[in-house]
């Protein structure tokens, strides 16, 4: 089967959503227009300058000082006024900048939206720098001199204070020693009082406290084990019997009784534990005693230290600090004298070596380049948001002869074929089926599907496959024609809606959904599609029986986190794979409506072209509605004689969950 290329898929998606694609591209181009309107493209030019100065500062310092001059608001206003520039155009733009280009060389870069103005702007900037650079340098030097003077004054004050402190150091040391010892003695007394209060509180606090806790009694464990055995027994019964078999019903009633007994088997037991308050108080007392011992040791040490120590160490420390400050005072005086000399001898001059030695260059993208990028990004966004991969080539899906015959059947029966009747007969009104009127969808098969009916046991034993697989046992039988007609119409519906997940549903059980979906899966696989058949009917699974497979592991295991390659089974038909139901979970509707189910179907869609899902009855269990509301579309099976009330209820349920119905099939 042919697959479309990526380019073909993109073209198909854009054609299908041409209106949205045009809107996305137009929005991108509009954004580019707005950007060009309020943020036009900038151009830049460069000039090489030589700075003639006796200053000992480095080239980086000169460039930084000049950039600082250009950053001043009055300087910028002067340049704008002389060149008649637009203030809004340079509001968020660095109009001029200087960078170091070698020893005594600087590069002046000027940026503006009009290339013709760059030469004039560069000339004006050079003139402004020549007029203001020396003034700015003098101001900076004055500021440096003032800092040194303040520093010198601060050092002199500090030296004076230290000399006064040296005179009164002995008195202050003695006072300080007395105050520290008194503080330690107060802390020791307060800690002893705290320990005494805590000890009294500890005597009145109970060591143990009582509480109630639930406990699993031997009876509870016994009932729990019986419940586990009963559930395993129910799983084994489902492999052989249907849901309404007496053994299954008896086992289910036994499980309910065990669950009720299990809920009543818990008992409450009074227990005791250590009182956390008692432990906290006891721990606090121990910590306070340790702190008290440390404080007593420190108090004793300080008393000995201050008794033996003299004031000579304090005086010596003050002398060292005074000597250090006096040395710093001498250095500051020298720096101040050098700064005054540097201020008087600093001169400078700016000379232009090359003016606009490079033609104006664009900064970033031009307006045309922005428009082209916007157009390209709009196309890419349209592809990203609107591209939908196709599971199959639309050209490979055609209307079969049976489908064409079914659409022309009423006309042929009325005698409209000119090769049979020479004169056309008067057409009679066509009466629609009740299912078609109620469900508001067409019939997917021209005739009712015929279920296999074998009378004798010998006929059953003579078949190679299960009697329900008409597509394998009797590939040329007349019974198979409605199935082929259904497959042809199903291919057309999937191609038009780009849907690859199809659910088989019906109002009541016993309509033949499993037989229908099994034969449809075989016919699609024989047509060359990779088909996955999923049994989501946990209530009465039978897909594995039709294809002679086991049901040890299945869909329920996949939803528990098992890997797909351990669960997916190969069928006797090439290109057809099977996922059986597995053991029924406690809440099938919640499991099938979980995020794990959505993620699983997403992963399986990458591996398979078509996914067919068998489900339980729509009016009996909620699983079909849950799946139909979040995946694919529904093929509805309608049995002859089914009540219109059931059809209306089914239609209402599918509408409520937003499910898409491809059509109905009559059984």
Description:
A seven-stranded mixed sheet has the order 10-11-9-12-8-13-14, sandwiched between helices. It contains 24 helices and 14 strands. Residues 391-430 have low confidence and may be disordered. It has 667 residues and is an alpha/beta fold. Strand 13, helix 24 and strand 14 (660-666) form a beta-alpha-beta unit. The longest helix is centred in the N-terminal third of the chain and has 50 residues, at 118-167. It has helices at 6-16, 18-38, 59-71, 73-83, 118-167, 169-203, 218-240, 246-263, 276-308, 312-345, 367-386, 401-413, 434-439, 457-462, 470-473, 481-497, 513-526, 543-546, 555-559, 564-567, 588-592, 595-607, 623-630, 644-656; strands at residues 42-53, 96-102, 105-112, 208-216, 266-274, 348-354, 361-363, 501-506, 531-535, 569-570, 576-579, 610-614, 633-638, 660-666.
Give the arrangement of secondary structure elements.
Layout: H1 6-16, H2 18-38, E1 42-53, H3 59-71, H4 73-83, E2 96-102, E3 105-112, H5 118-167, H6 169-203, E4 208-216, H7 218-240, H8 246-263, E5 266-274, H9 276-308, H10 312-345, E6 348-354, E7 361-363, H11 367-386, H12 401-413, H13 434-439, H14 457-462, H15 470-473, H16 481-497, E8 501-506, H17 513-526, E9 531-535, H18 543-546, H19 555-559, H20 564-567, E10 569-570, E11 576-579, H21 588-592, H22 595-607, E12 610-614, H23 623-630, E13 633-638, H24 644-656, E14 660-666
Parallel strand pairs: 8-12, 8-13, 9-11, 9-12, 13-14
Antiparallel strand pairs: 1-3, 1-6, 1-7, 2-3, 4-5, 10-11
Helix pairs in contact: 2-11, 3-5, 4-5, 5-10, 6-9, 7-8, 12-16, 16-17
């Amino acid at each position: 089967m042919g697959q479309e290329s990526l380019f073909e898929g993109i073209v198909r998606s854009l054609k299908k959503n041409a209106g949205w694609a045009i809107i996305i591209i137009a929005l991108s181009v509009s954004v580019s227009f707005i950007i060009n309107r309020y943020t036009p493209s900038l151009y830049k030019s460069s000039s090489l300058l030589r700075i003639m100065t006796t200053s000992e500062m480095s080239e980086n310092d000169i460039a930084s000082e000049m950039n600082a001059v250009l950053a001043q608001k009055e300087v910028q206003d002067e340049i704008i006024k002389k060149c008649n520039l637009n203030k809004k155009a340079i509001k968020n733009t660095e109009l001029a900048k200087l960078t170091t280009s070698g020893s005594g060389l600087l590069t002046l870069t000027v940026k503006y939206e009009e290339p013709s103005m760059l030469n004039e702007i560069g000339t004006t900037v050079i003139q402004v720098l020549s007029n203001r650079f020396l003034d700015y340098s003098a101001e900076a030097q004055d500021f440096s001199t003032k800092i040194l003077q303040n520093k010198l004054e601060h050092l002199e004050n500090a030296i004076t204070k230290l000399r006064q402190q040296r005179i009164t150091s002995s008195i202050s040391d003695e006072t300080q020693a007395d105050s520290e010892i008194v503080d330690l003695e107060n802390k020791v007394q307060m800690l002893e009082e705290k320990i005494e209060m805590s000890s009294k509180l500890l005597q009145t606090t109970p060591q143990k406290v009582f509480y109630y806790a639930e406990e699993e009694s031997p009876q509870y464990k016994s009932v729990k084990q019986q419940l586990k055995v009963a559930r395993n027994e129910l799983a084994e019964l489902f492999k052989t019997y249907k849901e309404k078999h007496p053994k299954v019903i008896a086992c289910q009633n036994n499980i309910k009784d065990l669950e009720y007994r299990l809920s009543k088997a818990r008992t409450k037991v009074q227990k005791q534990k250590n009182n956390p308050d008692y432990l906290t108080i006891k721990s606090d007392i121990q910590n306070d005693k340790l702190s008290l011992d440390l404080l007593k040791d420190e108090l004793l040490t300080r008393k000995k230290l201050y008794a033996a120590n003299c004031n000579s160490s304090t005086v010596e420390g003050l002398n060292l600090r005074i000597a250090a400050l006096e040395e710093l005072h001498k250095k500051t005086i020298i720096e101040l004298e050098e700064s005054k000399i540097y201020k008087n001898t600093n001169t400078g001059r700016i000379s232009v070596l090359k003016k606009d030695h490079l033609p104006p260059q664009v900064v970033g993208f031009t307006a045309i380049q922005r428009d082209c990028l916007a157009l390209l990004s709009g196309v890419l966004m349209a592809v990203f948001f609107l591209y939908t991969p196709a599971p199959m080539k639309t050209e490979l899906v055609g209307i079969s002869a049976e489908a064409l015959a079914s659409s022309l059947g009423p006309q042929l029966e009325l005698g409209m074929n000119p090769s049979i009747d020479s004169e056309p007969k008067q057409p009679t009104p066509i009466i629609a089926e009740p299912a078609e009127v109620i469900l508001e969808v067409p019939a997917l098969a021209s005739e009712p599907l015929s279920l296999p009916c074998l009378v004798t046991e010998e006929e059953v034993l003579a078949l190679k496959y299960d009697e329900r697989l008409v597509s394998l046992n009797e590939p040329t039988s007349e019974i198979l024609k409605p199935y082929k007609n259904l497959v042809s119409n199903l291919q057309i519906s999937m191609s038009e809606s780009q849907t690859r997940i199809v659910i088989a549903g019906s109002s009541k059980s016993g309509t033949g959904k499993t037989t229908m979906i099994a034969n449809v899966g075989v016919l699609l696989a024989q047509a060359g599609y990779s088909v996955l058949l999923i049994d989501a009917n946990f209530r009465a699974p039978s897909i594995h029986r039709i294809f002679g497979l086991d049901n040890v592991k299945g869909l329920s295991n996949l939803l528990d986190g098992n890997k797909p390659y351990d669960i997916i089974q190969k069928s006797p038909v090439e290109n057809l794979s099977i996922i059986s139901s597995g053991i029924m979970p406690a809440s099938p509707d919640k499991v099938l409506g979980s995020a794990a189910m959505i993620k699983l179907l997403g992963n399986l869609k990458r591996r398979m072209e078509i996914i067919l899902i068998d489900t339980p009855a729509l009016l009996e269990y909620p699983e079909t509605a849950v799946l139909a509301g979040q995946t694919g579309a529904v093929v509805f099976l309608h049995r002859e004689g089914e009540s219109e009330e059931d059809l209306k209820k089914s239609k209402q349920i599918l509408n409520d969950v937003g499910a898409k119905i491809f059509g109905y099939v009559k059984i």
